[in-house]
Structures are given as C-alpha cells and as structure tokens.
Write a structure and sequence with these properties.
The chain has helices at 14-19, 34-41, 89-101, 110-132, and strands at 20-22, 29-30, 51-55, 58-62, 83-86, 105-107. The strands form two sheets. It has a four-stranded antiparallel sheet, with no helix packed on it. Strands 1-6 form a two-stranded antiparallel ribbon. By secondary structure, the chain is of the alpha+beta class. It has a domain at 14-108: Small protein B (Small Protein B, Chain: A), CATH 2.40.280.10. A hairpin with a 2-residue loop joins β3 (51-55) and β4. The model has no long low-confidence stretch (mean pLDDT 80).
C-alpha cells in the first residue's frame, strides 16, 4: 500500500529569520514550469535574495534561484525569473494594508541577534541534559 505524500518545505530562508523579526507568514502556491518542479523536487532552490512584491493586484516572487534542471533540454527555465505567487484576494489585500502601515518584517538589531543565538544555545544545552537523563542523582 502506498504511503500518503508528506508535506515538506522545499526551501527555507534561514538568513531572513536571523536578520529580521518575522511578523507574519503566509502560505501560497507558485506558478512553475515543468523543469522548475523537477529541480525543486531534487531539493535545489535558494531564497537568499528573494522578496515578494504586489504588482497590479498580484503577488510576484523576485530573486528566487531555481537552478536549471540537469536533464532538461534547450527549453529549460531561466533560474532567476519572477514567479507569480498564488494567494487569495483577501490575503493580498491584507498584506497590502499591512505593508502600507508598516513593514511585514522588521530588521533586527545586533543585540537581538546575540539574544537569539544565546536562546538557541541554551535550548541545545537543555535538550542535551534531557537526553542524557539524571546522572548520579540516585547513585550511592
């Protein structure tokens, strides 16, 4: 019997989460070509320079790099082309309203970054301690 398909993130921009406070996330689809889909399934994408912009009532993702599919032909896609993001009209309107009031992501200060690193390190130490379990507390 076939296993149900598991959802997973195709690409994550870790740098954005490090550099900015993410106020809100929105899940949407992308309009892709066939070779882009195959390249993404191979786990090859980069969101490092990517950003979204509302243009003429539609959301477009700029700067996302999907390398050409290795087994593709001369009809392979442009790696840096702008891609349309599929969102509901209400989501687009809400994002437009928020973007006019304030930025959806705010830049972090240096002390915020240090604080995030310290929290991450503390969490790692806690997980290590829990994994090891109680040592020597009941021994005699």
């Amino acid at each position: 019997m076939a296993e149900p398909a598991r959802e997973r993130d195709v690409a994550i921009n870790r740098r954005a989460r490090y550099e900015y406070h993410i106020e809100e996330t929105v899940e949407g689809g992308l309009v892709l070509t066939g070779t882009e889909v195959k390249a993404l399934r191979a786990g090859r994408a980069s969101l490092v320079e990517a950003f979204a912009r509302v243009e003429r009532g539609e959301v477009w993702l700029h700067g996302m790099h999907i390398p050409p599919y290795e087994a593709g032909s001369v009809f392979n896609h442009d790696p840096l082309r702008s891609r349309k993001v599929l969102l509901h009209r209400s989501q687009i309107d809400r994002l437009l309203g928020k973007a006019q009031q304030l930025a959806v992501a705010r830049g972090k200060k240096a002390y915020d970054k240090r604080e995030a690193i310290a929290k991450r390190e503390a969490q790692r130490q806690i997980e290590k301690a829990v994994k090891r379990g109680p040592r020597g507390s009941d021994r005699r």
